[in-house]
Amino acid sequence: MGIRNERLRWQLVSGVLRALHLERLTARYSHRAVMAGFSFLNGTVSIALIAFVALITQQAFIFPSLGATAFILFHVPMAAPASPRNTLCGHLIGALMGYASLHLFGIADAPSAMATGVDPARVGAAAVSLGATGFAMVWLRVPHPPAGATALIVSLGLMPGLDQLPVLMAGVTMLLLQAFTLNRLAGLPYPFWSSRPDDVPVATPNPSP
């Protein structure tokens, strides 16, 4: 599985470089340097685009767990947690469980834990939100690890309003659109919705160390 993921990552990077007519970089620099440089530029650009939309609209399109999602989408794009289904459903579950836990412990209108510190109600909300998110993702078979962070972001009071849910999901959707575009540009059969066992390229380059 590790070798397969490594080859898929290399196909993503080399495919994008070919599409941009920059394939000479793979001959000039080491495999590790190219992969690391791609990760830096791709992560920077992906989050910067969403952050720019947030700046223009003054809405919370950008939030911490998107960083982890971006890494998964571009580092292991063909893994089930990177699929649009798992990504969208996972973050939606995390957010809803976070909102539910705030109301369960009566702190929906309380200041965030970053402003006032952690009290017993906040501890309970954070614990229940994460536990419930994990339960729901496993039960529904839509694991997406960064969604656990989304649950905590909400339950800690950083995005406490249910009216912020559409904005939160819009941020996830924008990142998915970037992932779909880039992965398809590289020749990877990134899914429209859910990953399948046969969604694996037949021919993949064998990267040299």
UniProtKB/TrEMBL annotation:
Q: Which residues form a coiled coil?
A: none
The source's domain of life comes to Bacteria
Boundaries of every HPP transmembrane region domain copy: 35-191
For this UniProt record, give its keywords in alphabetical order, as a comma-separated list: Membrane, Transmembrane, Transmembrane helix
Record keyword Transmembrane present: yes
Q: Does the keyword rRNA processing belong to this entry? A: no
Where, by residue number, does the polypeptide cross the bilayer? 33-55, 61-80, 87-108, 120-140
Give the InterPro entries listed for this entry. HPP, TM_HPP
Protein name in UniProt: HPP family protein
